[in-house]
Amino acid sequence: ESRGLSLVTEASDRVFPATQKAYDVYKVLEDFIKENNVEVSLNTSVTSVVKNENEIFKIKTSNGEFEAKNIIISTGGQSHPETGSTGDGFKILQSLGHKIKDPTPGLVPIAIEESWIKELSGTALDDVKFVVLVDGVKKIQKRGRVLITHFGLSGPLIINTSKKIGELLCEGETKIQLDLFPALDYPDLERLMLEHFDNSKNKDLKNVIKDFAPNGTYNLLISLLEKEILDKKVHSITKNERKTIAKAFKNISLTVTGLMGFDKAIIADGGVMLSEIDTKSMQSKIIEKVFVTGDLLDIYRPSGGYSLQLCWTTGFVAGSNIN
Predict the structure, then answer these.
(1) SS3 label, residue 273
(2) In 63-185, which residue ranges form alpha helices assigned H by DSSP?
(3) Among 112, 200, 209, 309, fewest CB within 10 Å belongs to which?
(4) Which residues contact 129 (CB under 8 A, 6 or more apart)?
(5) 310, 274, 296, 262: which is closest to 93 by C-alpha?
(6) What is the distance, to the nearest Å, from the Cα of residue 76 to the centroid of all Cα atoms in its chain?
(7) 27 in helix, strand or coil?
(8) Are 162 and 108 in contact (CB under 8 A)?
(9) pLDDT averaged over consecutive 10-residue blocks of the chain (323 residues)?
(10) Radius of gyration of the chain from its Cα atoms, rounded to whole angstroms
(11) Residue whose C-alpha is closest to residue 246's, from 231, 225, 216, 228
């Protein structure tokens, strides 16, 4: 804000630019480094970093050599390689003596076997119960927002559970059950349907479902039922058919085939162990005058702005402690 960018605080104390444009944050940072005559070398890859006997770093790049008394390594980890975070920072840190815990995709969407759900790509389910079972045994139960994608499931609920699901995949057949009416048990759901059926006795079932479908669920609900029953007048729906409909809506079974890769991961787990970093300054304990920030550090965090906060905070601490 002191640099002219107005901010707003939203749910869970998350702070955003008032314009809701990430580019505006970038522009403030870009203008600041220009004002301070910071030299930026674009399209320049670092090939090696070596500290000589005079405590000076020799940095070889594809565009010549640089010298520095201090270096901050802020290359990002290994998620979203299209941004340039391809793991080069880990190689540099290894060459300087750091141990690196092998990165694995973290906070990542889930791949699903059933092809029919992928036809609903882009459907957002605002409030669902989400149960993970391994060989039929319940392991995880949560409730929240789920997004259907062309490869399976995403959204905050899925992404924040992905690490545990990845571990469960090694234990046996892993299934996900979705309940689209988490606030209602089976009898309550049947009563809700009956109320709407009584008010629309001569309508087709597919049209009445619109009246009680939770936000975002209509396309998914009708995809779970046969066309024959969807075209049926609600006054002709039998008690057994109501039970079948209720079960379809509250027990959608999906087979997990795996987690998506680094290109879909919000973060990648792994990196430099914190035991090798002085977190009061972000300076390496292995080699002086080297500072490590952001996704290079082995810190697990959920989605919701924590990765950005990690970068802002460690970057500020590192920059403030160089002398």
Answers:
(1) coil
(2) 88-95, 156-168
(3) 309
(4) 141, 142, 143, 178, 179, 182
(5) 296
(6) 16
(7) helix
(8) yes
(9) 94 88 94 94 92 92 94 89 85 94 86 88 90 95 92 89 90 94 93 89 89 84 87 89 89 92 81 95 96 92 82 95 92
(10) 26
(11) 225
Is residue 109 helix, strand or coil? coil
Structure tokens at 103: 């990165």
Query: If you search the block for the tokens 């941004």, which residue do you land on?
Result: 83
Q: Where are the alpha helices (DSSP H) in 14-155?
A: 22-35, 88-95
Output the 3-class SS for the chain: CCCCCCEEEEHHHEEEECCCCHHHHHHHHHHHHHHCCCCCCCCCCEEEEEECCCCCEEEEECCEEEEECCEEECCCCCCCHHHCCCCHHHHHHHHCCCCEEEEEEECCCEEECCCHHHHHCCCEEEEEEEEEEECCEEEEEEEEEEEECCCEEECHHHHHHHHHHHHHCCCCCEEEEEECCCCCCHHHHHHHHHHHHHHCCCCEHHHHHHHHCCCCCHHHHHHCCCHHHHCCEHHHCCHHHHHHHHHHHHCEEEEEEEECCCCCCCEEEEEECHHHEECCCCEECCCCCEEECHHHECCCCCCCCHHHHHHHHHHHHHHHCCC
pLDDT the model gives residue 77: 87
Residues 264, 150 contacting (CB under 8 angstroms): no
What lies within 8 Å, CB to CB, of 267 at 6+ separation is 77, 79, 106, 107, 295, 301, 307
> Rounded to two decimals, what is the model's pTM?
0.70
Q: How far apart are the first and last CA of the chain?
A: 27
Tallying the residues shown for the chain, one arrives at 323
CA-angle at 163, arms to 282 and 143, nearest 5°: 115
Cα 307 to Cα 36, 89, 216, 319: the distances in Å are 26, 17, 29, 18
Backbone angles phi, psi at 277, to 5 degrees: -125, 135
Q: Is the Cβ–Cβ distance between 61 and 47 less than 8 Å?
A: yes
Cβ neighbours of 250 (radius 10 Å): 18
